[in-house]
Amino acid sequence: MDQRLLGRAVAELDAIITAAGLGAHGLTAISVDTQAVACRIRQVSDVDLVGGGGTDMALGLAVAAELRPRPELTVVITDGYTPWPNAPIPGMTVIVTVVGHGDREDLPPTPDWMVRVECTDDDR
Q: Where do runs of H (alpha helix) occur along the chain?
């Protein structure tokens, strides 16, 4: 995912967190590529995004499932080119925001138990 699209996605998520007043309580963010690193944040811009390829969201969601208390909601921002877990995570709703450029028929499918939102960039 290019940096401009990632920046737009992060700004949207930050606005949601601010509008809902969630930042005051602190949130856990997990930056994922070939490793998954969890950190406590108050706003999305606090996340240190690492990596640059080989993203494995199955690994990131496994880290989320181990958090205590387990999150009831996990929002994933991705270009969609990633492996996914085979089975639902009990008690956790997963919303996948697929960020990209228009029609991308080559994307792997998102599991049926996740909510998928397409966020395309038609500004190019």
A: 3-20, 57-66
The tokens for 116 are: 């998928």
Tokens representing residue 23 in the block: 């930042």
pLDDT(124) > 60: no
The rounded Cα 87 to chain-centroid distance in angstroms is 18
pLDDT digits (tens, 9 = 90+) for 72-100: 889 888 888 899 999 999 999 999 988 87
Distance CA(95)–CA(67), nearest Å, equals: 17
Q: What are phi and psi of 3, to 5 degrees?
A: -65, -35
| Structural element, H or E, at residue 62 | helix 57-66
User: Mind giving me the DSSP string for 92-107?
Assistant: -EEEEEEEESS--TTS
Q: Please name the helix (run of DSSP H) or strand (run of DSSP E) that holds residue 118, with its range, or none.
A: strand 115-120
Question: Phi then psi for 67, rounded to 5 degrees?
Answer: -65, 145
Output the pTM of the full model.
0.82
